[in-house]
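Lab meeting, item 3. Inverse folding demo.
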């Protein structure tokens, strides 16, 4: 074994301290990685839950082709009509 060699006592003490330091470092590193993974899992589960920003959008039907389009993408025509494109709006108006 390493300590049975004929080193002075001071060197043996330094070797033991070094080994203890490495063990403590590895334990802290392992602890850090586990805590970090737990935090990341909690963050990921919070992101998976729907937020207020990801609410469904209102859909409107095109007055020309009867296809449903999100209201934010639709073109508003006269008489509260919505269209999926400017071409369809021009054909009716």
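The presenter then showed the designed sequence:
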């Amino acid at each position: 074994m390493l300590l049975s060699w004929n080193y002075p006592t001071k060197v043996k003490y330094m070797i033991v301290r070094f080994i203890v330091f490495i063990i403590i470092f590895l334990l802290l590193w392992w602890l850090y990685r586990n805590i970090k993974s737990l935090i990341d899992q909690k963050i990921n589960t919070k992101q998976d839950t729907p937020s207020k920003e990801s609410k469904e959008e209102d859909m409107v039907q095109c007055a020309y082709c009867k296809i449903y389009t999100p209201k934010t993408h639709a073109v508003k025509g006269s008489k509260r009509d919505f269209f999926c494109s400017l071409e369809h709006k021009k054909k009716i108006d």
